[in-house]
Design a protein that fits this description.
This protein is an alpha+beta fold. It contains eleven helices and 17 strands.
């Protein structure tokens, strides 16, 4: 399965860097020329042109050179309308248009956080912002990578002094950090005293990629390198992209909470497990072990995600009285899962049953009806669960046919 890796952990990411890297990957600048012509035709844009050129540095990379002259920008709505107009004129698909709207929404939300009385024209309201959003999306579509998995490493944000519309502040750029915080994107340190990840770059990552602290298992096919427009003297502000082949499994990030208990009753453990599942844990299990002084202990393990782990950690400590919890973030590969609700006949009546179909490497590996639904049918009809399961399995449609998508 084709996939795309974005690697900003050293040089950071901006819209123009990602566009340059993708153009280097594909070997084509034609989409950029088409996009710049559409932007130049916007009312208020006096001049807009883009040239793809070789960048100086230790690694061969491409850089975009801009010529921009425009009249003062209008409102948030004007910018959104101009973005939509250009996206339609260059033939961006629904996939690209949807993501462009989400990227702009993130940028506007971050700007309002720091400029409550109005967005910063210096930072966001300009023709090159439209280019920075649309160019990477257009290049991804032209390369046939739209809809493929996109992975990324944590972006280097940079430091030093950052110029904003409201003055100079210490790095990293506040709006970029705000977007990373809103999407819980892990970030990387950098010794460079300059802005490396721009707000647009952060918004692109947030809406395109799954960010993890390592490369996924992959087979590289081709690479591309894009350089920033501001040289830093070290040649390190370079973004790498990799087109690759990956297995049909889906990689996701989980948080694992663990604690050892040696002075707690089975009833308290059972109640804690129920509470954790009620609060949204993906899975909870208990493992018997031998602890210090050869005492038997119970290890409670909780699988969750970044959004819920803090709440579940609190529940775990409150319910068990443990004084410490181990926290690890780990990747896991899972089958792609599709959930449908199908109508099945049991005992002469029709019931809705949720069915989970799992696929890996292009083939169906499991079709599993929801246990709770079958248990409810068994109770309602006064029959055994095994009887219901046999009837449900006989009535299941072929994978991908029939049913109503949840």
């Amino acid at each position: 399965m084709r996939a795309l890796l974005i690697d900003p952990r050293t040089g950071g990411i901006s819209g123009d860097m990602l566009a340059a890297a993708l153009a280097d990957l594909t070997g084509s600048a034609a989409p950029l020329e088409r996009l710049s012509a559409a932007i130049a035709a916007l009312p208020g844009c006096v001049e807009f042109s883009v040239r793809l050129e070789e960048a100086d540095g230790g690694v061969r990379a491409r850089r975009l050179s801009f010529k921009v002259r425009e009249k003062p920008a209008g409102s948030d709505g004007d910018l959104a309308a101009a973005l939509a107009e250009v996206a339609a004129s260059v033939g961006l698909t629904a996939w690209g248009r949807e993501r462009s709207e989400r990227i702009l929404s993130d940028l506007l939300a971050a700007e309002r956080r720091f400029h409550p009385t109005g967005f910063s024209r210096h930072a966001i309201a300009s023709a090159d912002t439209i280019f920075d959003i649309l160019a990477p999306l257009l290049l991804i579509e032209e390369a046939g990578l739209a809809g493929c998995q996109v992975h990324a490493t944590p972006p280097a944000l940079g430091g030093g002094l950052i110029r904003t519309g409201g003055g100079t502040v210490g790095g990293p750029a506040p709006a970029a950090l705000e977007i990373c915080a809103a999407h819980r994107i892990p970030v990387a340190e950098s010794p460079l005293s300059m802005e490396l990840t721009t707000p647009t770059g952060a918004a692109l990552l947030a809406n395109l990629a799954v960010v993890a602290d390592r490369f996924p298992a992959m087979t590289p096919i081709r690479t591309g390198y894009g350089a920033g427009t501001r040289p830093n003297g070290a040649g390190a502000n370079i973004l790498r992209v990799v087109e690759c082949e990956m297995s049909g499994l889906v990689e996701e990030r989980i948080v694992l909470l663990e604690t050892n208990l040696d002075d707690i009753s089975g009833e308290v453990v059972a109640h804690a497990l129920g509470r954790l599942l009620e609060e949204g844990a993906i899975d909870v299990f208990v493992t018997p072990a031998i602890g210090k002084k050869n005492r038997p202990v119970q290890v409670i393990s909780v699988i969750t995600d970044r959004e819920r782990y803090a709440r579940l950690l609190t529940v775990l400590m409150e319910e068990t009285g443990t004084l410490g919890v181990r926290v690890r973030e780990e990747p896991r590969l899972v089958a792609d899962r599709r959930r449908e609700t199908v109508e099945v006949a049991v005992g002469g009546r029709t019931f809705p049953v949720r069915v989970k179909t799992s696929e890996a490497c292009g083939r169906v590996i499991a079709v599993k009806p929801e246990y709770e639904d079958m248990r409810q049918i068994a109770r309602e009809l006064g029959v055994t669960l095994r009887e219901v399961a046999r009837e449900v399995e006989r009535g299941l449609p072929s994978p991908g046919r029939g049913g109503q998508q949840e």
